[in-house]
Design a protein that fits this description.
Arc Repressor Mutant, subunit A, alpha/beta, 124 residues, 5 strands, three-stranded mixed beta sheet, two-stranded parallel ribbon
């Protein structure tokens, strides 16, 4: 019996989930689908500056799993840029962070910033 997959913790869904060339017609076969967990590894590693180990800890998965997800995501980004394909972000095996747990500390989405600010005001 195969081992059950772990849900990957994701801070929040992307506000924009469709990217692509503006000057070409869009055909059905010109789409690349990036999963939400692949998007999250790109966000954490490339934008937030996490290393793969920190990213793995944040997402509650193994570092080697992060490495595989990250490599797949980078390949999809490159394919979209080089071949002019539309990149769509959807699906995957993820669980949204509720913003309340103390281990989150992501600070990446407005929901968490609002939550922290309201908690700090209550303490004063």
């Amino acid at each position: 019996m195969p081992r059950p997959r772990k849900w990957r913790k994701v801070c929040c869904l992307p506000t924009v989930n469709l990217f692509g060339p503006l000057n070409t017609p869009i055909y059905h076969d010109h789409f690349i689908t990036m999963t939400v967990d692949e998007y999250e590894t790109i966000r954490l590693i490339d934008l937030e500056g996490f290393n793969q180990e920190e990213c793995a800890k944040y997402m509650n998965i193994a570092r080697t799993t992060v490495q595989g997800i990250y490599n797949d995501a980078r390949k999809k980004l490159a394919e979209s840029l080089v071949y002019g394909k539309v990149l769509r972000i959807e699906g995957g095996e993820y669980m949204l962070c509720d913003g309340i747990e103390k281990s989150c500390n992501c600070g990446g989405c407005p929901k968490h910033k609002r939550f922290r600010n309201s908690m700090e005001k209550e303490k004063k």
